[in-house]
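hey
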């Protein structure tokens, strides 16, 4: 067996790990490169293995940095099955359609304003490609082995990172390759902790927070303080949150606060994001994947006013009473939250509360940095609202939680590869694993191959 790292090597995006046996090719994750231009350019280069030669794709979870290249792979000739959990399929359906829509809209914008060197500018893929990719999905149940070919089996374990997220195990002629995907927290309120996997000859492990420990924080109390303070001065709390994952977690915390009677009883909560709304439907359908029972999930979402049409969204801003608006995108880079920011950011009674990681250069990062004004749709708005970030909301295991998961292996893997981390994080995890567990491990470079035998 041979593995080549065609993404998420020295960076956190573009997860694509190509596994080759004597007769077959399997791709573990099929992610989009995101962030700086040098990385995004890789999405346009031909994939190193001809897509038609790949026998199957296996997905760890639905995030675009693990699935967002799939429609392109299909467009360029990949004709095999895509294996995942049911929840990953359902969430990927939402995320890939949205990604394709954005690709098409961007190309259309560039063409309309003649802003591209390419005539015409083309989308990386279209809605049709995304729909075609969705037809390739084949569902796997956790822990049930499935034969990919006569010598290779795949098995999924729970990773706890987002709904449907998995650790992937490939077994070929008695040798096991385990790929962590993205690992979740040990004590996430909605997701179960990652499953212990006992045996691996070779291990590929993520390192997003390989050099960080999450600070213990009381998210609920922090949130209650912020909301009560804002409501007391007659203001509105606008919460930019990622449509899949963060929005649902935020609604969970609000529900808990309401049950504990720690919020004003008449304070309405609005979820204003068509994508988050579709994600709520998926979360409601897959109760077996969460720590809540059906009745709790029903309760949780019953407290929320769902806003679907643009008219309803606009109407929200004509109501001057205190309220909470949860809306996407999470870093305020686009989406409906921009309209709410325009409306609320100039009034010191209001609060803008960011609920997740803010990548450098995004509007969210700029605002959290204390910008006095913010540019939205070409216009500058003064920032007078309170601007805050909520800590303690990560969906990724920190270094200690990664080590806890690694201690679950009965024996040290022969080789351990560290991926999905910025160079400093990946290297810090490598040292931690060597020093505390004594395992041999390495940080692969982009395009580096290893033969495993
Ligand atoms: Zn992820």
């Amino acid at each position: 067996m041979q593995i080549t790292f065609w993404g998420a090597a020295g960076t956190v995006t573009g997860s694509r790990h190509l596994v080759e046996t004597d007769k077959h090719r399997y791709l573990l994750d099929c992610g989009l490169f995101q962030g700086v231009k040098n990385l995004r350019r890789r999405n346009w280069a031909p994939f190193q293995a001809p897509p038609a030669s790949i026998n199957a794709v296996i997905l760890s979870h639905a995030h675009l940095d693990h699935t967002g290249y799939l429609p392109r792979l299909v467009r360029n000739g990949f004709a095999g099955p895509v294996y995942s959990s049911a929840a990953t399929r359902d969430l990927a359906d939402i995320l890939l359609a949205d990604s394709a829509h954005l690709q098409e809209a961007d190309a259309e914008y560039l063409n309309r304003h003649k802003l591209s060197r390419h005539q015409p500018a083309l989308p990386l893929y279209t809605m049709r490609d995304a729909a075609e990719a969705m037809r390739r999905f084949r569902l796997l149940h956790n822990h049930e082995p499935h034969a990919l070919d006569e010598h290779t089996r795949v098995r999924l374990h729970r990773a706890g990172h987002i709904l449907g997220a998995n650790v992937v195990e490939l077994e070929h002629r008695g040798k096991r390759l385990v790929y962590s995907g993205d690992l979740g927290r040990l004590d996430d309120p909605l997701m179960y902790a990652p499953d212990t996997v006992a045996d691996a000859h070779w291990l590929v492990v993520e390192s997003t927070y390989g050099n960080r420990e999450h600070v213990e924080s009381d998210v609920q109390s922090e949130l209650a303080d912020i909301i009560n303070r804002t409501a007391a001065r007659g203001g509105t709390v606008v919460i930019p949150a990622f449509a899949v994952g963060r929005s649902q977690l935020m609604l969970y915390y609000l529900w808990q606060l309401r049950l504990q009677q720690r919020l004003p009883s008449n304070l309405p909560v609005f979820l204003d994001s068509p994508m988050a709304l579709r994600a709520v439907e998926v979360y409601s359908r897959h109760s077996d994947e969460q720590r809540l029972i059906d009745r709790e999930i029903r309760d949780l979402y019953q407290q929320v006013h769902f806003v679907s049409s643009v008219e309803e969204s606009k109407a929200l801003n004509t109501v001057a009473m205190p309220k909470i608006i949860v809306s996407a995108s999470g870093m305020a880079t686009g989406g409906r939250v921009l309209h709410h920011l325009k409306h609320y950011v100039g009034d010191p009674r209001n609060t803008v509360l960011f609920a997740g990681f803010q990548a450098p250069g995004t509007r969210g990062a700029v605002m959290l940095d204390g910008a006095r004004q913010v540019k939205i749709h070409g216009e500058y708005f003064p920032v007078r609202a309170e601007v805050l970030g909520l800590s303690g909301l990560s969906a990724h295991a920190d270094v200690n939680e990664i080590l806890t998961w690694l201690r679950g292996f009965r024996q040290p893997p022969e080789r351990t590869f560290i991926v999905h981390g910025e160079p400093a994080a990946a290297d810090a995890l490598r040292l931690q694993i060597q020093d505390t567990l004594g395992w041999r491990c390495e940080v692969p470079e982009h395009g580096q191959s290893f033969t495993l035998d």
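The mean pLDDT is 94. Residues 158 and 166 are 5 Å apart (CA to CA).
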